[in-house]
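Field reference: sequence -> structure
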Amino acid sequence: MQEDIQKKRHEYTLKQLDERDVNLNPFTQFDIWFKMAHDLDLLDANAMTLATVNSDGKPTARILLLKDYSDQGFCFFTNYNSRKGKDIKENPYGAIVFFWPELEKQIRIEGSIEKLKSKDSDHYFMNRPVGSRRAAAASPQSSILKNRDELEQAIQNFKNEFDDKFKRPNYWGGYKLKPTKFEFWQGRESRLNDRIEFELENGNWNFHRLAP
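Structure field:
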């Protein structure tokens, strides 16, 4: 390995995470940390990594934006025919990760994934900027393109045909990840990080500390 990569490290010293300080409801604990990141106006505070697995057991991961959350789950939107959409159809489970380096905090969430109701996807779609709506409707997400010109021509053709008067296409919409596991991670000095994990067991959330 390159020596400069081996030596590159950052000591985490800002905070600690004690069991006595953790809310017994992991959704509430998530809300506390998420609002902390949001209130500090961190760049893309709602950015998260979504990992999915296809029917062959091959994983993929990508960064996208959280668009809503509640004690029912965590919502995001995409093209249903994209790679992640196909993965979810074949294997409706996934994991999301939030990392806020300025706070030295990370949250991992695992669970099942289901489509949102059409009315919820319609509402979100129609509240997007028209350029984003047009891109979502016209781009064949995850398909192979010959070049950038092919994409831009597809967008222009769509604009010529529909202008800004079009509804959400049926191949685009929202998903909700319904958690069965949370992990709250607080960076600590010498990599002795605090890790508090919640697991859903018989309808109740139980938590415990994990070794770093």
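Note: Helices lie at 3-7, 26-39, 83-90, 118-126, 130-138, 148-162.
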